[in-house]
Design goal:
It is built from ten helices and nine strands. By secondary structure, it is an alpha/beta fold. It has two domains: about 60 residues, no CATH class; about 160 residues. The strands form three sheets. A four-stranded mixed sheet has the order 4-5-7-6, with helices on one face. Strands 1-3-2 form a three-stranded antiparallel sheet. Helix 6 links the parallel strand 6 and strand 7. Helix 7 packs across helix 9.
Length: about 240
Amino acid sequence: MDTETIIKIAFENKTKLKTAELVAILERENPRLPHSSILKLITSLIRNKVVFRVKKGEYTLSHKHPFKPLIDKQVGRIDGILRQNFPLVSYCLCESRWINGFAQHIASNNFLLVDVERDVVDSVANRLRDEYKGVFVNPTQKIIDNYVREFEIPIIVRNLITEAPIIRIDNIPIASIEKILVDIISDVEFFYLQGYESVHIFENAFNGCAVNSSVLLRYAARRGKKQEAKTFIKHE
C-alpha cells in the first residue's frame, strides 16, 4: 500500500491528526525507517500537498475549512435535555438552516432534526414535547406537508443510522457535512432540496469546506444510496 493511500485511510474517521499520531502511523507501515526519515517523509507529504499543516503539530487532509456551523441556543438546550434524561443514548442534532450556505436558493422554512437510537425515539419525542410544540416522529411526506410546516421551527425525531458520521461542536454531537449531504438525497424531510438543488449543494459543500468522500460514500452505502452519491460527487 502506498503512503498516500495509508494517509487517506488514517484520516477516514478524523479531520485532524497530531504529529505523534502521524509519526506512529508511518512508523507502523515503515518499521525499518529511522525516526528522522519519518519526519522527512511528513515534510515531503506537506510539500506535495498530501497533508496540510493546520498549526504547529497538527495536520489535516484538506486545506479547506472543516464544517463548523453556528450552534444556537435551542440546539444547546435540546442537547442538555438529552444528556440529562438519556445519558447512555447515542444521538446527533442538525438544523436545516445549516444547509443554506451551500444552497442556490435559501429555504424559508427551518426545522431541527434529532436522530436517536431506534429504541428510544418515542421516549425522546415525549420528553421534548414537555418543552416544545411541533415535535414529530419519523413523519411521512403527507404529515410534513399538512402539519410540520405549520410550526416555525418543528422538531423531527428520527432513527439514528448506525455508524452515521457525527462530529462535535462545543461538545454537542451534530451531523457531519458528509451525513447531511447523504441525508439530503435520502430523506423525505429534504424533499424540497432533492433534484437540481442537490447538485448545487454538493458542489458548494465540496468547494467550500473539507468533505471526506470515503466517509460520505460509506454512510451512503449504509443507506442504499452509494451509487447516487457517487453521481453527485462526479458533478462537483
